[in-house]
Amino acid sequence: MKLFFVAAFLAVAAAVPSSYKPEYKAPSSPAPNYPAPKYPTTSYPAPAYPAPAYPAPAYPAPAYPAPAYPAPAYNKDNKYADITITSQSDERNLDGSTQWSYAQSDYTTREESQVQKKMQGVTYDSYGKESYGEVLGNTNKGSSYWVSPEGQKFTLTWAADEAGFQPKGDHLPVAPVHEYELPVAPVHEYELPVAPVHIPFNGKGYKIY
């Protein structure tokens, strides 16, 4: 009996055309609704980074070109433009004395010296009190020679010390000399008065000798 049903089923299956395809419908299942997961919040400490140490920048020194100044243009009528220094000296010593001089191409010369000297003068103490005594001062002497634009030659010498500044030169003005007669006191001629003579009496009209 079982064999009969199997044979019948096979015969029916063989009789179904090969183009037949069974139609299956996809099952419609509702989308699962899962709750959102809850994760624990982790608290991390703020990282401590060391302060960065940067090396100081090395900048190259700027190279500036040397300024180019135009050569001075002297007036051709300036007769002093060609004057130059022909000699010069300058000495400074440990004792405070100095000596210097110079000469120019226009024959102008000058020399000067200075030394320290003890002299009488005014001094002040730390409280500002003034006193008169021995002080150390500078003395100076020198000379100078030059020619004026008119061709006149001048020579000047000088000294400066405790007596003051003392210049000498033929071109220096001289104080005028006032010549006058001194006034004479008037002579008063008169007779001197004579004191009276008192002759004593004795009270009886007789003179007492």
Question: What can you see in these coordinates?
Answer:
The protein is mainly beta and 209 residues long. The protein has 1 helix and 6 strands, in the order H-E-E-E-E-E-E. The protein has one helix at residues 2-15, and strands spanning 85-92, 98-104, 109-124, 130-147, 153-161, 164-168. A hairpin with a 5-residue loop joins strand 4 and strand 5 (153-161). The model has no long low-confidence stretch (mean pLDDT 80).
Quick summary of this structure?
This protein has 209 residues and is mainly β.
Topology:
Elements: H1 2-15, E1 85-92, E2 98-104, E3 109-124, E4 130-147, E5 153-161, E6 164-168
Antiparallel strand pairs: 1-2, 2-3, 3-4, 4-5, 5-6
Strand portion: 25-35%
* Tally of strands: 6
Low-confidence stretches: none
Q: The biggest beta sheet, please? A: 6 strands, antiparallel
Terminal CA distance reads 235 Å
Query: Considering DSSP H and I runs of 4 or more, what fraction of the residues is helical?
Result: under 10%
Mean pLDDT comes to: 80
Placed side by side, the strands forming the largest sheet appear as 1-2-3-4-5-6
Shape call: elongated
| Structural Rg | 67 Å
- Pairing-aware structural class of the strands and helices? mainly beta
- Number of helices, where a helix is a run of at least 4 consecutive DSSP H or I residues: 1
Taken in chain order, the helices and strands follow as HEEEEEE
Keywords: Cuticle, Signal
Signal peptide: 1-15
Pfam families: Chitin_bind_4
Protein name: Cuticle protein
